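User: I'm designing a mutation panel for AMP-activated protein kinase glycogen-binding domain-containing protein and want to avoid disrupting the core. Could you give me a predicted structure to guide residue selection? Please restate the sequence first so the numbering is unambiguous.

Assistant: Good idea. Sequence first, for numbering, then the predicted structure tokens:
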Amino acid sequence: MFGPNPDSPGHPNSGLAATVVIPTRFVWPYGGRRVFLSGSFTGWSEHILMSPMEGCPNAFQAICNLTPGYHQYKFNVDGEWRYDEHQPYVSGNYGVVNTVFLAR
């Protein structure tokens, strides 16, 4: 009636922990021509191009799958790094400020 138990020895997926991801929408509502998102969840090396939001000419969005926990991120707006002053943020070494988000 049921297929093989994935936790049973010998099953191809036995012993693999399920990775929990949380689809998270990031929004930059302050305008710009090209907006990218980067953060701890991309290793700070990937820059995700954000899409204009339909019906909101100054807003951009991107949806990313995050693992549970705290993540820091920033927006690159027309070549300038920005953080969202209206969301929680942290100040790091050398005056670096990043927006912070708890995925749960």
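For picking mutation sites, this is relevant: The longest strand covers residues 56-66. The beta strands are 22-28, 35-39, 48-49, 51-53, 56-66, 69-77, 80-82, 89-91, 97-103.
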